[in-house]
Amino acid sequence: MTSFTLDPRLDADTHLIANHGSFSIRLMDDDRWPWIIVVPEVAGLTDMDGLDDALAIDLAITLSRLSAIVKNLGLADSTNVATLSNMVTQMHWHVVGRSVGDPGWPGPVWGHGERVPYAANDAAALVARLRAAWDKVAPKPTA
């Protein structure tokens, strides 16, 4: 069995929020949007059909709770939740906070200008807020 290794591009572009069960939960280093990345820690996983039922259920619950966190913390009015594998084939999900008037509104965030990295202190502060909120609602993994 091959062990899981996070794609180097995801590692370079994100800040770790938490490792939870079979998922790595990370903040995208782009200050334009509150943008969370969820990576199932399954070696070789590229698509949804590669998840077993228990992990698929855990993923759905995790994405739902992260969406609620982004809104409950007042970071956005709504969220876009999606997976794309055009640039990084390792399966990962995006939970992107959106608000009317944000830099890409109403279009998608992908392909909209250049990434704007967080100032180091801002990233650390947001990661701490997200981690504290996650710790309060994190489900018990079933997988």
Describe the protein in words:
The protein is of the alpha+beta class and 143 residues long. It has a single domain (8-137), classed as HIT family, subunit A (2-Layer Sandwich). It contains three helices and five strands; from the N terminus they run H-E-E-E-H-E-E-H. The chain has helices at residues 8-13, 53-72, 120-137; strands at residues 14-20, 23-28, 35-40, 78-83, 93-98. Strands 1-2-3-5-4 form a five-stranded antiparallel β-sheet. Strand 2 (23-28) and strand 3 form a beta hairpin. Helix 2 (53-72) packs across helix 3 (120-137). The longest helix is centred in the middle third of the chain and has 20 residues, at 53-72. It is globular, with a radius of gyration of 15 Å. The protein starts with 7 loop residues before the first helix and ends in a 6-residue tail after the last helix.
Summary tags:
single chain, 143 residues, alpha+beta, HIT family, subunit A, 5-stranded antiparallel sheet
Secondary-structure map:
Elements: H1 8-13, E1 14-20, E2 23-28, E3 35-40, H2 53-72, E4 78-83, E5 93-98, H3 120-137
Antiparallel strand pairs: 1-2, 2-3, 3-5, 4-5
Helix pairs in contact: 2-3
Poorly predicted tracts of residues: none
Counting DSSP E segments of at least 2 residues, the number of strands comes to: 5
Structural class: alpha+beta
In DSSP terms, counting alpha (H) and pi (I) runs of 4 or more, how many helices?
A: 3
CATH architecture: 2-Layer Sandwich
Would you identify the CATH H-level superfamily?
A: HIT-like
Order of helices and strands: HEEEHEEH
Q: What's the overall average pLDDT, rounded? A: 95
Report strand %: 15-25%
Distance between the termini: 17 Å
Query: Strands across the major sheet, in which order?
Result: 1-2-3-5-4
Q: Tell me, what is the CATH class? A: Alpha Beta
Number of domains: 1
Global Rg:
15 Å
How helical, in percent, are the residues? 25-40%
**Overall geometric form:** globular
Q: What does the main sheet amount to?
A: 5 strands, antiparallel
